Request: fold
Amino acid sequence: MATPFSPKRGLVLVADDDPVMRLLMLEMLAQVGLDAVEAEDGVQALACYQSMAPDLVLLDVEMPGMDGFSVCREIRRLETHSVVPIIMVTGGDELESVTKAYEAGATDFVSKPINWPILGHRVLYVLRASDAITRLRIADAHHRAVLAAIPDTFFRMNKDGFYLDYEQGHEASSVFSSDNCVGRHLNQVLPDDIARHMLEEVRTVLETQHIRSLDYELPIPGPAPRVRHGEHAVPLPVRHFEARLVATGPDEVLGLVRDISERKRTEEQIRRLAYCDSLTGIPNRQAFLETLEAELARSRKGNKKFAVLFMDLDAFKRINDTLGHDVGDHLLMAVSERLRETTRPSDLVSRTEVGGNNLARLGGDEFTILIPDLERVENALNVAHRVKEAMRRPFLIEAHEIFVTASIGISLYPEDGEDCNSLLKYADTAMYHAKNCGKNNAKLYSSSLTMQIMSHVKLEVGLRKALQNDELYLLYQPQIDVASARIVGVEALVRWRHPERGVISPTEFIPLAEETGLIVPIGEWVLRTACRQAMAWQAIGKQPLRVAVNLSAKQFKDENLTQIVMSALDDTGLPADLLELELTEGTLMDDARATMVTLEQLRAIGVYLSIDDFGTGYSSMNYLKRFDVRALKIDKSFICGLPQDSENAAITRAIIAMAHGLKMAVVAEGVETDAQLVLLEEYGCDMVQGYYLGHPSPPESITLMLSNQWALSAPAV
Reply:
């Protein structure tokens, strides 16, 4: 969670033609203390880059006029000394678009849909890596300049390998003196393998008269580190040298020796930045992909099998949201260390030593494990089981005892795929299947999973078109006043008539709408349609009729909710007190402080507020009183067993008594028998709805029911 007064750390140029995307990006960057400027197309982005010299560019791929790839290439062309990091926002993880982004000069990429909570931190990590590389380049240039100004150590040597002369340079890294070298043979000064290699190069130089060079390393003089019983030997520290040889006569060469240890260390640091995850220190996605490519070639050549495990922590977002991102980062470091212990060579069922890049963090809470030389599928499942069990043990992070579980997907070579992209994608697919099966699971990939995903994607595409193609419609279920047996309200229920599949159950498309964010525009359509229909009934009967509309968690958290409700009421003319908004316990309890603010805004409009499915979630009595809603709807799971189920009867009676004590009306859902209705009337329930009293029906049927009711209540002439 960002600190509200965190200092600004850099300027980011955000280029995207979608104003909503820009707004969200600016907000995420501001939360981590970054200044940002925005551009709405490629041409404007390029102009901002030239005029403002940002520290990082966040660049959408698809923009009108000049796309992100073109802008990226043009920025790279305009650069002179410093290289600004560029993060491309691509439409997905397709290898082609990612490859094209890197070829254009991108530093990194972010795939849509964007994981908004980690976007700012991702940008900070890229800035940090860029700064580190810049510092390393400056340091490398500095060291090279210093070394160039100081004479190197040089020597003369004959064709047989005897030192004729040796002049020690002024650098402190020299390990030999002229007294130790002049008149001596190479193998008396240097280790045998290095001496043999240098003598070969000397003779090659004399034969070809071309300059040759060789690199070698020597241990730093000093006492060897002590090794206690049971400990592994610690390798001796070494220095790296480069020797350049040039012929100065038919039987003599001149050698110049330079200590290149600093250069080697710098190269290693740069390599680590490129191939190591900056948070956990284990290999990153790029390193794992290269390891996977190498293993693919090795297994193909040796006719061997291997497995790819894709692991994702379950509900990791909850840790970040409740305990903060710092605790989340420490948890990821602890997870990577535990994975390292669990997947050490002795734990893996393979004859090839597992190490190096066989374990990697792809990003976020996603980790991969490569199991080479797989003999049986059960072996991969056994490793997955050990990983799951390791994750189940509690983590102690900053005095917090944290419990997490993991979902793991497994793909096999060559059964599931014969290229890296397919194997990684299929392991990811299997992991999502494991999550859908209840989490804390390990699942093998199968081709049927791809079919399920394709069906899911097709359904999502259809749902996106459903609104514009008028495929959604509303049914209304009457709510009956128990005392008068009259219809006093209706609940609006959305349905989808698919052009190919027919009517699709709400249990199938509502979760999909929640997942994709489509629930917000669909919810607005339901709200407006229900308000319009309620006004039509009022115009016919001249009597008030309340219409209830369900609000999802995403709708309730939408910052535009109050404006949407006011607009719907203004456009249709429906009085605010005839609109009932139903919210679940989970929605209300998710963020109590924010909930109070939103409820105050809705109450100020004058709408009727109720809690839906009461009793299935968790409610604090204190908050329930503070929320000040008008009604509770008892979930149908408590009604269905009445009157025989004594426990449900006791719960129902208690809820009704509690609600009345808090001056709330009570609605019982799922009433299906006369006996249930009689019992609810005895308990003092205010309103009821269910199949016994009326099925969800089209507006025409409700109009007919209301007309009959109005006719019966009309005074005789």
Q: What stands out?
A: The CA atoms of residues 125 and 278 lie 8 Å apart. Confidence is low (pLDDT under 50) at residues 1-8, 346-356.
